[in-house]
Amino acid sequence: MHNWSIQSAAPQHFGVLLFEGFSNHCLANTIEPLRAANMISGKPLYEWKFLSLDRHPVTSSSGLQVTPHATLATASGGPLIVMPSYGFLNHGGWRTLAALRSAAKRFSPLVGMDTGSWLLAEAGLLDQYQATIHWEELTNFAERFPEVDAQRERFIEDRDRITCSGAMAAFDLILHLIARDRGQALALEVAQLFMTRDSARSHARGASPKSRVVNRALAVMQEHLEEPLTIKDVASRVGRTQKSLESRMLADLGATPQKVYGRLRLNLARKLVSETDIPVSEIALRCGYLNPSAMTRAFKSEFGATPRELRQ
């Protein structure tokens, strides 16, 4: 299956260190975008293991029990996501802090999700770094750890440390990492899978004015999948010439507006094929194809199977 700009096919391994009282919401917003990226790309771009300090099952704040794949002491890999969430002050004993210091030699980067930043700071692993934390704890965090440059941000990436302010921001952070490492186009598709109409804007916080033009164009495209506009019309609606929009999209997404628009329409077709019993002829109309055969040919070229084969 063709993907616009997946830069490396080698899987990236995540360790997710859970503590009693972790947030289901934070965990889902961390893992589900990675799973979706694997599904959309058709490749194992990301792998993850749930970890704990003692291998015993860990129970979330709402009662969900997770059995870890391994203990932190026996694991190593790429990013280590530290996720204590609620009750984090009860987890800062010497055993936890020593385990985190040891893990810092085997994982990179270290990622403090939600209140995970507190444990990393208490272990001395955020000294001289910019960092954020759940905003309810930001003032206490800044007072308790003056050697950390505490900032009120959704997430901060500073060298080999990443900190994130909460469950909703976790989704934005993972989309940011997907875009950085696997391409903006894949991040767009992941966002579209979860948030449909607003997906074009969902991972664009802090984007440059030029990038905001692309995001507005993507939003216009998503709003006109059933009756596609010409690229000239899309450009006009965002206040640009067609040539300017084409240049900007190639720079940001590595693909022409025509290719991006076609992929958005085919993504909708794949969703309808996979999740409904709507006839292929009607799906074609909903995705802006007057001829079902034309959609089937494009669908097979993009996804390696016809709509009917995918349903089977």
UniProtKB/TrEMBL annotation:
<dbReference type="InterPro" id="IPR052158">
    <property type="entry name" value="INH-QAR"/>
</dbReference>
<feature type="domain" description="HTH araC/xylS-type">
    <location>
        <begin position="215"/>
        <end position="312"/>
    </location>
</feature>
<keyword id="KW-0804">Transcription</keyword>
<protein>
    <submittedName>
        <fullName>GlxA family transcriptional regulator</fullName>
    </submittedName>
</protein>
<dbReference type="GO" id="GO:0043565">
    <property type="term" value="F:sequence-specific DNA binding"/>
</dbReference>
<dbReference type="InterPro" id="IPR018060">
    <property type="entry name" value="HTH_AraC"/>
</dbReference>
<keyword id="KW-0805">Transcription regulation</keyword>
<dbReference type="GO" id="GO:0003700">
    <property type="term" value="F:DNA-binding transcription factor activity"/>
</dbReference>
<dbReference type="InterPro" id="IPR029062">
    <property type="entry name" value="Class_I_gatase-like"/>
</dbReference>
<dbReference type="InterPro" id="IPR009057">
    <property type="entry name" value="Homeodomain-like_sf"/>
</dbReference>
<dbReference type="Pfam" id="PF12833">
    <property type="entry name" value="HTH_18"/>
</dbReference>
